[in-house]
Amino acid sequence: MTVKPIHIIGGGLAGSEAAWQVAEAGVPVVLHEMRPVRGTEAHKTEGLAELVCSNSFRSDDSLSNAVGQLHWEMRRLGSVIIAKGDAHQVPAGGALAVDRDGFSQAVTAALEAHPLITIDRAEIAGLPPADWDNVIIATGPLTSPALAQGIQSLTGEDALAFFDAIAPIVHFDSVDMDQAWFQSRYDKVGPGGTGADYINCPLDRDQYEAFIDALLAAEKTEFKEWEGTPYFDGCLPIEVMAERGRETLRWGPMKPVGLTNKHNPTVKAYAVVQLRQDNALGTLFNMTGFQTKLKYGEQAAIFRMIPGLQNAEFARLGGIHRNTYLNSPKLLDERLRLKADPRLRFAGQITGCEGYVESAAIGLLAGRMAAAERLGQSLTLPPATTALGALVNHITGGHIVTIDEGPRSFQPMNINFGLFPHIEGQATHGPDGKKLKGPAKSVARKHALTARAKAEMEAWAGGVAQAAE
User: Fold this and answer.
1) pTM of the prediction?
2) Summary count for the chain: helices (H), strands (E)
């Protein structure tokens, strides 16, 4: 029996990994890559899996780093991206960094040599043809305008290519709740709320003035030429607001009204920074209205001036840049298919993950799901306790959509331990019998999370292999 091919659009990290996984499952695949017929502002070659920014896949520490754990899981699942990264590694301490040209050439050669992979060098302008019944779109943040318009026509979203207004995200357990407190403004319960849904960090007048001074003096990131889209009114960077007047933020995201400091109820705060829960686990909170283009080093120092955040650990820092990604929690089902047209499955950065490794990981999962669907097999999702499961859970369901007015709240994110479910039973005492505190306690928690992830990924991968036999 002839098996119809799966079509994959985009030959970046996600598309290349997806193509490999589909072919390794025994299903033919046509990989459509528009370069060199049509170039992009960022790519320099016609190679598949070209790295356009850094050459690093970040930490390879699978014991205490979430992206290192994701590396481990992808190796376990036969990732071509990680295999070729390992083969073309360059010295980078604890990170997995690669010779970018050698890496891209190796991925291209592997895919070109696979008997079930056909590479079509042509642009898919607009939506895929109707007779393509199983498609993976992995076109990344630089999706061609014609395809972006086609997706937009299906999703009904107001915008697909737009400024990515990213507010910093903080690990909840790094917030000093002896200074901050939970309360919604005016104790409003709202749909699904409790009246105590926000973390509030109070500033007195001197602290506010010092914060504004630091914002105005800080170094900002300049946009590249191809990022020349104007701001949306609803997502001005906080430093731009500060430039418009020292009180602007106090009338905007830092307004102190409707709140009572439970630690000091008789004194009204001069300004308040609010943090809103970002994931269903309650482990991550984003700084509400704090989109910014301050340089990363400046952000960490300035935001730690805020009482309650003096020891903040950031799951991600803020930023604003032109991007193309879906509002995935709303538009995709749990198998990464577009609800409005389930023959279309998405992978990579266009789904709302961020980073080379995360993009390839979602490509890996999308490829496996598409191949299983074509073969009439069932494929359970990886457990949310694994890095891969935690990442796809964030994309399709783990994020809590804001009820506030303003830009949409779902933002691209790297894998991090805040996306993993809570764990009980990690070590509380060190080998010397002393109770673990501070960084040692944090390390013990990370080790427990990665040990659980490895065990559950091993069980899931073994079950998938048996089901395919």
Assistant:
1) 0.74
2) 12, 17
